[in-house]
C-alpha cells in the first residue's frame, strides 16, 4: 500500500538494547520503530516493521512489499555477503535507504564493504538510532515524487 513504509532489520538486530550497547546503543528495536513512526506519521505514512534473522525471510519480506512507499533497510551482516538479498533489492521498485547503527569503517576490516549500498538511494553509517530517523526524513521527498 502506498502509505506504508517498510522498516526492515536483519540478523541480530532484534536484540538491540542488549546487544553490545557500547557499539549499537541502548535503544531497542521497538524504540527505533516508534521513532520512525513518529517521523512519518504527519505525512500519513504507517510503518510496517519486520526483523528477520534469516536471509530467506528478508528476501520474502522485500518481495511482499513492492507496494510500500519505500524502505529503510539495516541488513546487519548480510551487507557483507547477502547475495540473495542483493538480488531481491535489485528488483525492488521503490526507493530505499541502507542504515547501519555503527560506523563500520572504524571496526573490523571484514565489515568494510556493503554489497548492497550501490543499489540504495543513500546509505547512513555510524549515527546510531537517529540514523533511522534521518533515513525516514530523506525518504519522504524521494518516495512522494
Ligand atoms: C550493523 C553493522 C554490521 O556490521 C553488523 O553485522 C550488524 C549491525 C549496524 O547496524 O551497525 O549486525 O548493521
UniProtKB/TrEMBL annotation:
Keyword Lyase: yes
Key word Amino-acid biosynthesis present: yes
PROSITE patterns found in the cross-reference section: DEHYDROQUINASE_II (PS01029)
The protein's name in its UniProt record: 3-dehydroquinate dehydratase
Residues that hold substrate according to the record: 74, 87, 101-102, 111
Species per Swiss-Prot/TrEMBL record: Kibdelosporangium aridum
GO molecular function: 3-dehydroquinate dehydratase activity
GO biological process terms on file: amino acid biosynthetic process; aromatic amino acid family biosynthetic process; chorismate biosynthetic process; quinate catabolic process
Subunit structure: Homododecamer.
Family matches, as NCBIfam families: PRK05395.1-4
Family assignment from sequence similarity: Belongs to the type-II 3-dehydroquinase family.
Amino acid at each position: 500500500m502506498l502509505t506504508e513504509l517498510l522498516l526492515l532489520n536483519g540478523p541480530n538486530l532484534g536484540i538491540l538494547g542488549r546487544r553490545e550497547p557500547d557499539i549499537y546503543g541502548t535503544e531497542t528495536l521497538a524504540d527505533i520503530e516508534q521513532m520512525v513512526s513518529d517521523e512519518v506519521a504527519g505525512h500519513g505514512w504507517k510503518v510496517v516493521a519486520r526483523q528477520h534473522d534469516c536471509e530467506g525471510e528478508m528476501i520474502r519480506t522485500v518481495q511482499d512489499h513492492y507496494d510500500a512507499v519505500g524502505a529503510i533497510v539495516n541488513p546487519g551482516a548480510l551487507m557483507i555477503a547477502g547475495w540473495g538479498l542483493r538480488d531481491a533489492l535489485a528488483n525492488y521498485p521503490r526507493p530505499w535507504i541502507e542504515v547501519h547503527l555503527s560506523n563500520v569503517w572504524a571496526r573490523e576490516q571484514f565489515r568494510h564493504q556493503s554489497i548492497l549500498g550501490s543499489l540504495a538511494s543513500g546509505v547512513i553509517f555510524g549515527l546510531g538510532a537517529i540514523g533511522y530517523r534521518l533515513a525516514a526524513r530523506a525518504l519522504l521527498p524521494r518516495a512522494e515524487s
